[in-house]
């Protein structure tokens, strides 16, 4: 499993620019918002956490179609299906490697992008924390879409269409928890715990559903 994690980590970084493409796209999405809404610093500060979360969500969707594509192209997907190691565990390891290579850099870059939106220290810290907790759920959900579309010739767009609606609850509670940390009357813990529960839920359901879809695609 360690060798598989390291292999997938290298492939995720090399394929299509990996983390660099995601961070650049994240930067582009956040950077153009001030040009659209104008120089109102209070407005930017108010909508900043939501914009950073939306940018991170869209950037995380970029490379999901390649989660199983390399194995499909070189034929190693059939070997994955016939190994003694449970396929669910293999998918889980691949998801962790993909998150480390593509989504973790977005979490690291989010404080810098928060400065572009005139966010204060509390909002920047809360946004980074909620992204750290919530972004794995996006990867686990995306694994299901990637497994469903792995046999299709142009599955990249289909993965985004399938995954985006399912990630809306993660986006809602991630942004809600961030705003709750900034606005004193609103408690931070309830939406943050729900966000954590969503990640744990999809960490169980996502790999299992992706493994089932991969088996059906190979038949």
From TrEMBL:
One Pfam family, short name: CcmB
Protein's membrane topology: Multi-pass membrane protein
InterPro entries: Cyt_c_biogenesis_CcmB, Cyt_c_CcmB_bac
Entry's localization field: Cell inner membrane
Principal localisation: membrane
Transmembrane regions: 12-37, 43-64, 85-108, 128-150, 157-182, 188-214
Record has Glycosyltransferase as a keyword: no
Residues forming coiled coils: none
Assigned keywords, A-Z: Cell inner membrane, Cell membrane, Cytochrome c-type biogenesis, Membrane, Transmembrane, Transmembrane helix, Transport
Record carries keyword Transmembrane: yes
Function, as annotated: Required for the export of heme to the periplasm for the biogenesis of c-type cytochromes.
Protein family membership: Belongs to the CcmB/CycW/HelB family.
Name of the protein in its database record: Heme exporter protein B
Source organism per UniProt: Rhizobium croatiense
Gene field: ccmB
């Amino acid at each position: 499993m360690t060798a598989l994690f390291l292999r997938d980590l290298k492939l995720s970084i090399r394929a299509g620019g990996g983390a660099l493409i995601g961070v650049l796209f994240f930067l582009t999405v956040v950077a153009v918002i001030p040009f659209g809404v104008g120089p109102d610093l209070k407005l930017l500060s108010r909508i900043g956490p939501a914009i950073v979360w939306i940018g991170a969500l869209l950037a995380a969707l970029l490379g999901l179609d390649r989660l199983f594509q390399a194995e499909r192209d070189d034929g190693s997907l059939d070997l994955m299906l016939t190994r003694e190691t449970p396929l669910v565990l293999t998918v889980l390891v691949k998801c962790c490697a993909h998150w480390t290579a593509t989504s973790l850099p977005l979490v690291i870059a989010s404080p810098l992008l928060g400065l572009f939106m005139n966010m204060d220290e509390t909002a920047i810290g809360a946004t980074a924390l909620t992204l750290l907790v919530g972004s794995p759920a996006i990867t686990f959900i995306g694994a299901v879409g990637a497994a469903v579309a792995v046999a299709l010739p142009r599955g990249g767009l289909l993965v985004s269409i399938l995954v985006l609606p399912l990630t809306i609850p993660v986006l809602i509670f991630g942004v809600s928890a961030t705003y709750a940390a900034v606005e004193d009357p609103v408690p931070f813990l309830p939406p943050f715990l729900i966000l954590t529960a969503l990640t744990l839920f999809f960490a169980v359901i996502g790999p299992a559903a992706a493994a089932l879809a991969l088996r059906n695609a190979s038949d």
